[in-house]
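RESIDUES AND SHAPES:
===
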Amino acid sequence: MLHSLSKINVFALALVLSTIVFTGCKDDDDSPIPFPDTKVYDLESVADPNIEGTATFVRVDARTTSVTIVLTGTPTGGVHPAHIHANTAAEGGPIVISLNSVDGTTGTSTTIIQEDDSGNPVTFEDLMEYDGHLNVHLSEDQLDVIVAQGDIGQNELTGKAKRYELEEAAVPGISGTVLFEERRNGEALATISLEGTPEGGVHPAHIHENSAEEGGGIVYTFNPVNGTTGMSMSNVAELDDGTPFGYKDVLKYDGHVNVHLSPEQLDVIVAQGDIGVNAD
């Protein structure tokens, strides 16, 4: 897949470079940058495990950015709307910049950006620092179905991560992990992955004070674990009381994670594990 994506990206970049030359000939006041800055973000599969790819941001000039989406696995004849949204993918957020739809036959789309949907100027530098994510949707009539997705700008992951085990508790057979991944802005993406959760279940999850053996109050609330998939993804930026709380804070925190049976049965813990200083 990487080989085919790289060939398409080279072709897309060549188109952008040719546009730069043409723009430079037309407007001497908007001189092109000889070696445009480029940033590639991964777009992970969501609703369809066969669809994934990249979004390549290229600085064309001081006011203009090209965004090229390249996906594999899209259906022939499909038309897939794409947008830049506010906030992280785990949080979700409104559409801020509408992109050209991805052609299902080729798996590609290219959009030239100079402003957001409200008419505010947007530069390459703005996008590199933006608190946002990019979604590719199934169709115009099914925007709630996301086929590929990726965090961009300050929400990009640095590659640093810490995984903690979640052992089975009151319900035999349910166990897994919670993975914290550092973002460039210092926040964290938390992914809970469990095996053995019942189909259709909704399992609240929290960070609690103290070790699991001691027990303690709730300080952070994750998005609930989906029993069908066994998954939950949350953005960790602050505790429930508003206290700043990012990736580095997780690593030194005196706490533990509980996953509960249901919103009505928080006293029944199905999986549990120490984090931070209690897991060292």
